[in-house]
Amino acid sequence: MAKDTEKLIRQLSLISYLMAERRPVTALEIRRDVEGYSGMNEDAFARRFYADRAELESLGIQLTIERPGDGSAEQEHYSLRSENFHLPPIEFTDEELASLQLALSLLDGEFAYAEPLRLALQQLSWGRPSPLEEPAARLVGLGVTAQAGGRDPSQRLAKVESAIFRNKTITFEYHSLHRDVVEPRKVDPYHLLFRGGQFYLLGRDHEKDGLRVFRLSRIRDKVAYATKAEHDFRRPDDFDPRPYGDRADWQMSEAVGTARIRIAGRIAWQVERAHGRQGTFAPVDPAAPEGDAIFTTEYGVARALLGWVMRIGEHAEILEPAALRDEYRRRLESVRDRHTGPFLAAPGRPAEVREDPGEAAPPTRDGVIRPERFARLVTLASILIHAGRAQERLEVGELIGRLNVSEAELKDDINVLNVVNFGGGSYVLYAEIADDGYVDVDPEPYSDHFARPARLLPVEAKALVAAIDLIGDHFPDGSLAAVRRKVVDALGEDPLEHGLQVAHGGGDDRELSQLISRAAHDRRVIELDYYKPNEDEFSHRRVEPYALINGREGWYVAAYDPSREDVRHFRLDRIRDAQVLDETFERRPEVDPAADVAGWPRTGELPASRTARVWVSPERARWERERRRISEELEDGALVTRIAFAGVDWLVREVLTEIGDLVVLEPPDAREAVRATAERLLGA
Q1: For a Cys staple, 649 with which of 31, 54, 317, 534, CB 3.0–4.6 Å?
Q2: Other CB atoms within 10 Å distance of the CB of residue 454
Q3: CA distance 489 to 486
Q4: pLDDT for res 377
């Protein structure tokens, strides 16, 4: 029998024994009665028992130790309180369970933490209909699902996740784009952040002796433990990961200054909605609530802030600091000059074909975050005992689907549970797979302690809360927010603080998303007052809302527009006002609001009718390789890429965001549009 299997049998038998005895017991009694310990000598037992206790503690299962007054270890007594193993009762409504069901159906097979999420939902829905059945209707679609993206990235993510959980220092080769070097790094990993479609690691860099942020996609080769020790570090008590989830692109490095930016009243509402967490807003004239506003924000990446201001255009003006204002003008002059007259690029050659940076490779079953087998065994034991007591037979295919295991894995798990005991014929259960494809279960008298759901293991709790945060308040009844509160209250702490955080996508759109989602559920027409930034105009639309979907830039409502006889997508943070009308509509069978989920919401590439040939400066080439397909590599280190676009206005803003490091080579009308816009902004 494999050592890992022997360990699992010992640990499950130990839990069963302590729960059944309901009294403190000595180490001698444990060694004598619990399966897996009885054949060991004293030294071997001491080592194994200590290691098993430490691992159970790391899983959130804390044994109580009573020591005698003289401190002798031989007379220590051990017990396991029910509250240290069982999940506190959580009263979920049917609507809340349905929301959990929908969450898993949206994320299953794509979310990097889908497996522990699946087990968590099994525990939370104990005694209720399974949350794993397919929901009848979907009013939410996910283009961004926090998947790891292929075998190698998944394995790195799994190793980092394990290192955070075990407080293990890791080493890896990292590509620093700012210095364009690949060098070894030694890091104490504190936290994972999912932001803008990418996973980031927050941790202490040993060489820099400070907190640094590492993008996982820039890690080269394997992630390894630095030592063989059980633990290498302790995360500082004052480390708070929450602020990182609310930061803007210009705040992803240590702050170097504070900017004051005047925002035109025309779009101040939109900027405050999208970036209210990243600074403060104050009206220029308090008597004019819809007038201009001053946005004050700290920044650490000046380039990102300049790009954001330049994309907004004439509706934003940097007031302070003077150096940032001067740099903005210098960059704007560079955009104008590089689009005036002919632009001579260096000779080049066709670029090598590489994997599309906008398309994530499909996740692999072996690479995603896998929960501890201990968790799966505890969940399976609960399912089997419940079926045995109800005198029900379980279909093998159903069990395989609920646990997402192979038939061979299911057989192995059942065999392990069949030998969990603590001496004298005191077994937990006996189950076997019959020839007709069903599982027969005979629960033993000592199965009571597995007849209630066990506590969520740390990775299960993290998966559950991360899934809720990824979807947010975008279900019609908003029940996920209530689920999150109940789970955190039951656990006694927020799992977000222990290793995984999903950053907020865009601004605070809770009220708006609830209103639109409820209208979609009730099939009510809505009227939108919508701002189109590329054209800098407002439009009023009467549309039939079908679903809310997320993408790289935020959340959208997918709606059928009768005036255009087609589906349109409206970004929530650009909706100035929405009204639900009394008018109802029938869902059109030919309309699939989630049809595009795997397209532009996930890749960021909008459907387009034209293509621009665009030069990328040598200084910015490394970053653009991560974002776009490269068509030519030039002798001076510059690149040429092709950007698909439907409207010239959108392309102009895309070029302005890169503050002079992108130059449109063709078509001529797009090149002229960039020049004219830069000239106009300089004049303003």
Answers
A1: 534
A2: 25
A3: 5
A4: 87
Q: Which residues contact 94 (CB under 8 A, 6 or more apart)?
A: none
Cα–Cα distance for residue pair 547/593, rounded to 1 Å: 6
Say what percent of the chain tops pLDDT 90. 43
Rounded CA separation 454/457 (Å): 9
Per DSSP bridges, beta strands 210-215 and 524-532 are: unpaired
pLDDT at 451: 61
Q: Do 659 and 335 contact (CB within 8 A), yes or no?
A: yes
**Which of 165, 214, 94 lies closest to 370 in space, CA to CA?**
165
What Å distances lie between residue 136 and 101, 402, 493, 524, CA to CA? 11, 18, 33, 19
Q: How far apart are CA 266 and CA 617, in angstroms?
A: 34
**ω before 667 within 30° of 0 (cis)?**
yes
Across the range 118-130, mean pLDDT stands at 70
pTM > 0.85: yes or no: no
Distance CA 497, CA 14 (A): 30
The residue assigned the tokens 């979807």 is 471
CA-CA distance, 302 to 273, in Å (whole number)?
22
CA distance 98 to 158: 29
Q: Which residue's entry shows tokens 């068509």?
A: 631
CB 49 within 8 A of CB 37: yes
Residue bearing the bigger pLDDT, 425 or 540: 540
> Which of 121 and 407 is assigned the larger pLDDT?
407
Residue 411 in contact with residue 2, Cβ under 8 Å? no
Q: What is the mean pLDDT of residues 241-265?
A: 91
Helix (H) or strand (E) holding 94: helix 94-107
Distances (CA, A) of 295 to 258, 273, 278, 280: 10, 12, 9, 6
Which pLDDT value is given to residue 96?
A: 82
